[in-house]
Design a protein that fits this description.
single chain; alpha/beta; seven-stranded mixed beta sheet; three-stranded mixed beta sheet; 10 helices; binds guanosine-5'-diphosphate; binds magnesium ion
């Protein structure tokens, strides 16, 4: 075999793929199947980007980095202009787009808007009609027909993310979109540890956002428990907010616990979006006078 040719065929390939579709069409389920394990999280600062990495599939020959583009999931009128622009920019820059539809649901206005958006980009688009295990062939065909009217010439693959049907075909097509490129992320970067870290960072961020200047420094968050219950699509998290002063403890808890409740609710919502499952989040506040000066305690907190 020609040596150069061999080089080309064995080159590592990588790229970014955006996953879009209305809520509940099965995006998380699809990702979980394609990744083979729970969705990997990499961004420790979710506020800084609108386009979140929701999962990474790494094989011997290629790496696919899946992005979520939240802006596109809502109707245009509900979105602010910047979110639309960011989402569109993402769709233009990725190597491909997977658009998920639910086979046993009617086409909704949101889908029509997504289709309209997708008509305006150059990026390859693959339409996935998910949950085919729930419908008969007779129902599937009109939907496929409708989709090809939406986006003429685009490939449509009927799949069942839940039953792992059709996903090999999807992965083959997606791998065809990838160009030669590096392995951007190593396997070790997406352990359970990064999810714990993410949880503590999000709680800490909510403390800062909600208490503002009242509690300038001196807050650390530790994760005391992080128990995954995949059968319930649930993660149980127990976290402690450490503060240096009694007065800060009062502020953090708030009147009748209102502040702590708000911190917990906001953190929980964000974590649910990022981790793609339900979160039960329990928060405690503890006064650790002088913890910022205590090396042992800092180590314990992983700082
Ligand atoms: P997302 O909001 O787009 O991320 O959707 P999810 O992945 O959370 O799925 C929403 C619901 O649809 C869950 O109850 C899934 O179990 C279910 N679901 C996803 N894919 C399939 C499928 O292929 N077949 C069936 N029957 N249910 C599915
Ligand atoms: Mg989801």
């Amino acid at each position: 075999m020609d040596k150069d040719k061999e080089k080309v065929t064995t080159a590592y390939r990588s790229g970014y793929v955006a996953l879009i579709g209305r809520p509940n069409v099965g995006k998380s389920t699809l990702l979980n199947q394609m990744l083979g394990e729970k969705v990997a999280i990499v961004s420790p600062k979710p506020q800084t980007t609108r386009n979140r990495i929701t999962g990474i599939r790494t094989t011997e020959s290629c790496q696919i980095i899946f992005l979520d583009t939240p802006g596109i999931h809502q109707g245009h009128s509900l979105m602010n202009r910047r979110m639309v622009d960011t989402a569109l920019q993402t769709l233009d820059e990725v190597d491909g787009v997977l658009w998920l539809l639910d086979a046993h649901e009617r086409i909704k206005q949101e889908d029509e808007m997504i289709a309209e958006t997708l008509r305006g980009i150059e990026t390859p688009v693959l339409i996935l009609i998910n949950k085919i295990d729930l419908v008969s062939k007779g129902k599937l065909l009109p939907l496929m027909e409708r989709c090809s009217q939406f986006l003429p010439g685009k490939e449509i693959v009927p799949v069942s993310a839940l039953k792992d049907e059709g996903l090999d075909t999807v992965l083959n097509i997606v791998e065809g979109w990838l160009a030669e490129g590096p392995r951007y992320f190593t396997d070790g970067e997406h352990t359970d540890q990064s999810e714990r870290f993410l949880a503590s960072e999000i709680v800490r961020e909510k403390v800062f956002l909600l208490t503002r200047e009242e509690i300038p420094y001196g807050v650390a968050v530790t994760i005391d428990e992080f128990i995954e219950k995949p059968e319930k699509n649930l993660i149980v998290i127990s976290a402690t907010i450490h503060t240096e002063r009694d007065s800060h403890k009062g502020i953090l808890i708030g009147k009748r616990g209102a502040m702590l409740k708000e911190i917990g609710q906001q953190a929980r919502r964000e974590l649910e979006g990022l981790l793609g499952c339900r979160i039960f989040l329990e928060l405690f506040v503890r006064v650790d006078a002088g913890w910022t000066q205590n090396p042992n305690q800092l180590t314990e907190m992983g700082l």
